[in-house]
Prior knowledge:
By secondary structure, this protein is of the alpha/beta class. 38% of the residues lie in helices and 18% in strands. The chain has eleven helices and nine strands. It has a nine-stranded mixed sheet with strand order 8-7-6-5-3-4-2-1-9, with helices on both faces. The longest helix is centred in the middle third of the chain and has 17 residues, at 140-156. The two termini are 22 Å apart. Residues 34-141 form the AB hydrolase-1 domain. This is Alpha/beta fold hydrolase. Keywords: Hydrolase. Residues 282-315 are annotated as: Disordered.
Amino acid sequence: MATLVSERIGQFFVESDAGRDRLEYTEYGSGDRWVVLLHGQLMPRRMQQPLARALAGEGLHVVTLDLLGHGRSDRPADPLIYSVTAFAEQVVLLLDHLGADQAVVGGTSLGANVSLEVAVIASDRVRGLLVEMPVLDNAVEAGIIAFSPLMFAARFLPFTVDAVRWTTRPIPRGLVPFWVGIVLDTLDQRPASMGAVVHGLFFGRIAPPSRQRRAIQAPALVVGHPADPIHPAADAAMLAAEMPNATFVKAKDILEWRLRPDRLNALAADFCLRAWHGAGRGAGRGAGRGAGRGAGRPAGRTGGRAGAAKRRTSP
């Protein structure tokens, strides 16, 4: 039986040379054992709601964030402000806004890569890494094939993106299955901002290089999927082998964590709890371990600070 947890919606602001932008997040549960969950490319933070509720039910304080250009956060049309490093800086600003010294940081696909970047630019803030479907060396060709048409459509055929949005937006999300609703939310794009996001990621740094990944000391749980061309399990296995305190878990199939989540939810909860109970700091391999090391924080393309923030309680 699911445990009922409190849910609150909040917002904060980031400033850059391009202006001031608003980011929105949802908190689940309470306490000082923070977990930040990040979404996939062009997807909303709501995709992490089932896992967030499961982790909060175990006593963790979980936050899901809409990165800039996604979900209910602002969606500027400038490709220069989008990069994995810029997204990682937004996560650090979120921690500052929440008053969280450390968090287990994790995500899916793009969110996985952003989590790795957070561990590079702010390793002292990362209690552990929960990484699903990272996009690394083995995914380059498939990623280009999958996302190039989206950038082309957004730039040269914007009416096609608008037509999809106008068709899907009127469908009540409460009348369709949860994951159908997530697909509908993902299709709710604006041509200019969608093209900017894809362009910024295409021509920027998509993930820390192998040399930096090998230096990440935070405990990590890395989940890979079989038969997934855009997120090959080989990338996840390679990442787990590179990081000194990582454990690799292979999902049974590409939809296990979406449709049959109990096994992976339990592994994720156990990992996060171990990281916060101290087993993650200096214990053996496989138990969520490793000591974080201080690191410099190179400025990304959206370098900024958290502005005045507002938080409200959801009904």
